[in-house]
Write a structure and sequence with these properties.
The structure is a homotrimer. Chain A has three domains: about 140 residues, Rossmann fold; about 140 residues, Aspartate/ornithine carbamoyltransferase (Rossmann fold, 3-Layer(aba) Sandwich), CATH 3.40.50.1370; about 45 residues, no CATH class. With about 350 residues, the first copy, chain A, is of the alpha/beta class. The longest helix of chain A is centred in the last third of the chain and has 21 residues. Chain A is about 35% helix and about 15% strand. Chain A is built from twelve helices and 13 strands. In chain A, helix 5 crosses helix 11. In chain A, the strands form three sheets. A five-stranded parallel beta sheet of chain A has the order 1-5-4-2-3, sandwiched between helices. In chain A, strands 8-7-6-9-10 form a five-stranded parallel beta sheet. At the A-C interface, strand 3 and helix 3 of A face helix 2 and helix 11 of C.
Chain lengths: ~350, ~350, ~350
Amino acid sequence: MDIDHMIDLDVYPTKVLYDIVGFADKIYRNPEAYAEAAKGKIMATLFYEPSTRTQMSFQTAMLRLGGSFIGFDDPQNSSVSKGESLKDTIRVVSGYTDIIVMRNPMEGAAQAASLYSKVPTINAGDGGHLHPTQTLTDVVTLFNKKGRLDHLTIGVCGDLMHGRTVHSLIKTMSRFEKNNFVLISTPELGVPQYIKDIMDAGGCSYREVNTLEEAMPELDILYMTRIQRERFSTDQAYLAQRGVYILDRKKLRRAKEDLCILHPLPRVDEITVEVDDDPRACYFEQAECGVFARMALILRMLETPKRALKPARPSTHPVDCANPRCITRTEAYIPKSFFESGDMLVCAYCENRQLI
Amino acid sequence: MDIDHMIDLDVYPTKVLYDIVGFADKIYRNPEAYAEAAKGKIMATLFYEPSTRTQMSFQTAMLRLGGSFIGFDDPQNSSVSKGESLKDTIRVVSGYTDIIVMRNPMEGAAQAASLYSKVPTINAGDGGHLHPTQTLTDVVTLFNKKGRLDHLTIGVCGDLMHGRTVHSLIKTMSRFEKNNFVLISTPELGVPQYIKDIMDAGGCSYREVNTLEEAMPELDILYMTRIQRERFSTDQAYLAQRGVYILDRKKLRRAKEDLCILHPLPRVDEITVEVDDDPRACYFEQAECGVFARMALILRMLETPKRALKPARPSTHPVDCANPRCITRTEAYIPKSFFESGDMLVCAYCENRQLI
Amino acid sequence: MDIDHMIDLDVYPTKVLYDIVGFADKIYRNPEAYAEAAKGKIMATLFYEPSTRTQMSFQTAMLRLGGSFIGFDDPQNSSVSKGESLKDTIRVVSGYTDIIVMRNPMEGAAQAASLYSKVPTINAGDGGHLHPTQTLTDVVTLFNKKGRLDHLTIGVCGDLMHGRTVHSLIKTMSRFEKNNFVLISTPELGVPQYIKDIMDAGGCSYREVNTLEEAMPELDILYMTRIQRERFSTDQAYLAQRGVYILDRKKLRRAKEDLCILHPLPRVDEITVEVDDDPRACYFEQAECGVFARMALILRMLETPKRALKPARPSTHPVDCANPRCITRTEAYIPKSFFESGDMLVCAYCENRQLI
């Protein structure tokens, strides 16, 4: 099961996903068996913006496999900020290490890095674009708690318009048979149409509701995320509705006995602290599952035979990506690359769409 | 010998202290025997304020036991500062690691963390409150140099009014038979009454002197700390007296041949550099002993069987802690908890005392 | 082959250099054989100013030998900046670890540290003074690519007046038989006279040219470095000449088939990105060779038996070093020490020369 880089979970067929989830479960049941599986291997954690949680999860995964790590998490202080290109850093670091984990504020940065990396590269977040190991964590947790990935009624609550985490989860869970989504949000912050199209295409049903309470009784899973104050249409709307999207003990009264409450963390106040003691609160176990998910992914990637570097597919359209946060805008040497999709050009790095 | 958390050395009986000191000595004599004693174990070093020395001492201890570590030391740059509660960080990190070492500027933070940690937790300093492994280091060093912990004449020099390190050392050494303290300070910066009460209760004698020189001839141990300029009553007093509390080669002339000079480090100018070459200068060896002290503590804590989380004893007094630096003032979800002591309420976290 | 400290490559005889280069080559050919050669050993990486690349190279080397590391790279945030002397930090850290790697902005800092370190100490850059493992990396790379260190025609391009890296490389390569240097620079930024004297003394020929193109056909090695805009005599000169010192595909047309292009990295624009795909571009392999060079050095130093601390040779001249960036100017306790050289006094730390 070859995984040369993990930039975007969606490019891998469902059987790869099943393989990683099953492997994570196997490691979870017998971690000692893998305590030296990556012995002698070095991971680089290149964090161009700090994300302590994600970084610690990857580092823990590597240590639990008997490997070790180098890296940086504060490029402000580091000589990396002294004008070295992403390419040069990746070329050098992929000569030092066996696997690279990179977080970068620019969208498409991980895809760009994979062009220059001699070792497997994992996207640990490229701006607001993708964060595949968060979704992998979610899926591994679902399997761990429910024993299956299909025929589940999954509530997702929060800002469904802008939430990257939620979009990615819906996309991935729509691959599995007969999942049913309950989309809990204000009318203004509902899921975008293309996400609905994905659920339809996957044969998954969904309905949109405006309160946690009306969704509660039927849910197998409740995936909580935050709605930021500034996302409400007016301050008045915020003050009137904020409580509607906060999970507390009272709202849980109508929930199933075996509901599984998830949250990508960090939470602010969207789940009250009292809920933590409810056995249905699974968000801290979710963080633990994230370590097993990453252990499985790292091992599968280390097993993948090395390949020659693949150059970017050159663009036949002499344009720049229109997204100001695209990595191609700050690193000029990266070859432009687009896919055509109808009358749209899709940037091969950040997936920004522009008219041809 | 169960040590579930190490928040405050004083809550453990003397036999626990003897056990750790003896174990540290055993490791000191044969470190190779413990080179893989913590193999496969991960320590988290969560430093909410930087303390490079303490952090390096813990990390060295863990590496010398064959373990490894993750963590952070600059929460300004880390996502931990993005509003995550102490509880959530501890819950997540205790799902990643086998032991947690935390330094935090808020008083009582370590006690609060222990409510939420599934793994043994060590207080590496909670504001100006406690720093038990510094005292453990001091005691391990004393035993290493003197072969005993009792019947010692111990000089402590510096700001004895405010010095946490000195208070903690006196409290701990007062547990052992017939120790005799010489308290060297300005009259204004003498030890507080409650410390005198502790020496009395322990059957230890003490006397207060105003110069290093008059104390010198009788001392087995001299524990040096700093008096900061701003602690003198006037600038005039500072200029007149500063030299009195600086240890130099001249003052050492009247000292015993086997005097043992300690200092918690970092020093500024309270010991002159020329003293470093005197065989009685033990402060650098003291730093080394700190590694063995921490190795012993870590191993004992890793051996302690896991227990269920113990909730805080709920308060029967509906008040807030009056200490503005108490962790309960910034983390509102932490259950208030007080002990009664005469007509005082003592905060179970920061030990601040207020009238009932 | 005893190497107690590595402060300055020049103080070691050529046979030591050959030994390290040969050993690095041996490790390069069979790294698995050394995967546990430093097991249980701890390296301290004390970076008083950040240098992510150098730090990662040392850390990778230690991990590839089965060792581990502690350290800091941002003393701004660390308690090290709270007024602790270099001496105290080195004394403490050399009690924790088995080998110290230090980078420090003050010139002579590594030499000073070696006075107080109980363990082998490596200079990873002391201000603008020395950086011996960069030169070691260069030499190991040359041997790796060319199979010899003599009878080579070596072009060095850039600011040859101020370039520490280039001076150090010329000094070292002048030790080997019949090397021939081509010095490529503007007339104003040519090598200083004392470097010419060294080449003469080593029996190495050299010539100075003003363009990359005229040098190209005869070169076995081309060592590229940067000329900073502010080094040109006028802005006009910069705009007129900048392209002359930029290596691009066109200039390579006249180069030998087996030219080896090196660069200490990071590059800015002195080598165009298109050159990276040329098989003669060896600068990324050079970074990899740096890991093997450091592995060899670390192992040799760990093998060296411990010695007692050697005090500085006391100065017979009651003067201060005139160099404001000398470590003796900020750390007053360091004993002054000078060598006489003709009518000059040479500081034993920073090598600054002043009239007697």
